[in-house]
Amino acid sequence: MEKIHATTVLGIVHNGTVALGADGQATMGSTVAKSNVRKIRALLGGKILVGFAGSTADAFTLLERFEEKLNAYGGNMKRAAIELAKDWRTDRYLRKLEAMMITANAEEILVISGTGDVLEPENGIAAIGSGGNFAQSAAAALKKHATHLSAEEMVREGLTVAADLCIYTNHNFIIQKVQS
């Protein structure tokens, strides 16, 4: 069975707005399996955004668990993320899931991994997936030197750089934002 490679997800906190975007490509081996995968979801009426990279079925399982945690903790994103990471690390079934998530609300952005990590990036930029390092590097330069750009514009440009360089990333972007 060929491994499916998917994606680049980039989130930026800038000037009171959080933007989260992803490309639409899923690649199986050396073939583009689908070019318009939707990897960003809005939860709690659009107050929280989630982006995922990795195995799609695993990501949806984690997304459902995260939404359950959000509901259990009154919409507290950080607490829900920590509780999900605990379960992900200790539960026999969840431990085998291969995906990562970025969650964002109007104030903060978090990266959640299966190793039990909940990371809040220092610079307000989070990226995951095969093109994540390309997108994050571009976004860091933009945030430092092109402060006139919006968070959404920085995400679009960061994803564009990743799509130009990473064979597992395309230019079919979905970008959503949350404002404080």
UniProtKB/TrEMBL annotation:
This is ATP-dependent protease subunit HslV. A double ring-shaped homohexamer of HslV is capped on each side by a ring-shaped HslU homohexamer. The assembly of the HslU/HslV complex is dependent on binding of ATP. Its main location: cytoplasm. Belongs to the peptidase T1B family. HslV subfamily. It comes from Dyadobacter helix. Pfam families: Proteasome. HAMAP family: HslV. The active site is at T7. The gene is hslV. GO terms for biological process: proteolysis involved in protein catabolic process. InterPro entries: ATP-dep_Prtase_HsIV_su, Ntn_hydrolases_N, Proteasome_sua/b, Proteasome_suB-type. Allosterically activated by HslU binding. GO terms for cellular component: HslUV protease complex; proteasome core complex.
